[in-house]
Amino acid sequence: MGTEYDVKKEVSDKYSLRGRVFSKLREDILSGKYKEQEELREVAIGEELGVSRTPVREAFRQLELEGLIQIIPNKGAYVTGITPKDVRDIYMMRSLLEGLCARWATENISEEKMEEMEENIYLSEFHAQKGHYEQLAELDNRFHEIMYESCNSKMLEHTLRDFHQYVLQVRKKNLASIQRGKASNHEHKLIMEAIKEKDASKAEQLANTHMINAYQNMINHGFENTIEDHEKKL
Question: Phi and psi dihedrals of 75, rounded to 5?
Answer without folding.
Answer: -125, -55
